[in-house]
Amino acid sequence: MSRDGHMRKFHTSGMPVGMVEEAPFQMVQTQLAPGDKIVIYSDGLTEAENAEGQFFDTERLRLCLRDHAMRDAAGLHAALLDAVDRFTEGGVVRDDITALVLEYAPG
What we know:
A two-stranded antiparallel sheet has the order 1-2. It has 3 helices and 2 strands; from the N terminus they run βαααβ. The protein is globular. The protein is an alpha+beta fold.
């Protein structure tokens, strides 16, 4: 994700990291610009439910990321978790919610 909110999705799949020691992984390469961020999350984030049984879903995730694109990695991470917390208030969390935000800062 760029600082202006433009998002690119990497279409990858594979076993969860650490689940199988010898699992093969797909490798993807891209060029990042300073301030670009990579957001990695578990399915528990997009499948978090509110009191009405609605999922947080990928569209809410995209809107949250776009709305907070100018923040640094820590700020974006905090905004994302806050959005999920507000959304799920009164709902049931059935799975782990994991999110990692990495920011490219050439040095």
